[in-house]
Write a structure and sequence with these properties.
The protein has 216 residues and is α/β, with parallel strands linked by helices. The protein is 30% helix and 23% strand. It has one domain: NagB/RpiA/CoA transferase-like (Rossmann fold). The chain is built from eight helices and twelve strands. The radius of gyration is 23 Å and the shape is elongated.
Length: 216
Amino acid sequence: MSARDEVLGRIRSALADVVQPDPELDVPIPWTYRQPTPMPDVLAQFVEQTQDYRAVVERVPAAGVADACARLLTTSGVRSVVLPPGLDASWRAAIEAAGIAVHSDDPVLSRQELDGIDGVVTAATVGIAETGTIVLDHGDDQGRRATTLLPDTHLVVVRADQVVSDVPEAVGRLGVAIAAGRPLTWISGPSATSDIELSRVEGVHGPRTLLVILAE
């Protein structure tokens, strides 16, 4: 008997008492896809996990988002930003009032132009508490994907009602964007990579600095 025959024989013996051909139906799973995963405080979990990725996170009242945007950009040394066309007008006004140069992506900015701009400010589609991940579907208040990848600083505003417990629940909310064929960008902290010696390098394939405002 060959080794192959012996292995297959043992598998057949182990499966001799299995009468249900579908292994997924053989094990009860008390869980429904796209339903919230219970956790004590979804917002606190989101903040903790996002900060664990070395992102700067501030919780502010919804009415204070505009001022928070201007303050965070200024303290981070951002002197120029690109803003999506659908961004809240009050945010734009506060940023301009802070003396930060505002660029529009209409006409479309080149990669070289985007690379020369310090930052970008966007809204978000969903935030995931379990992983600290923020997802963009690049609607009017989030802009083109390139505008969120080339500037060195990304300030993203996540509303409290956009924060969900886990990835399956997030996917449920992204159904419309997926059906429309829009690109999705999943952000888990500032862009970073490391070599075989674990030397961390930030800003390689995305923004080096991630600023997050949680609007409550």
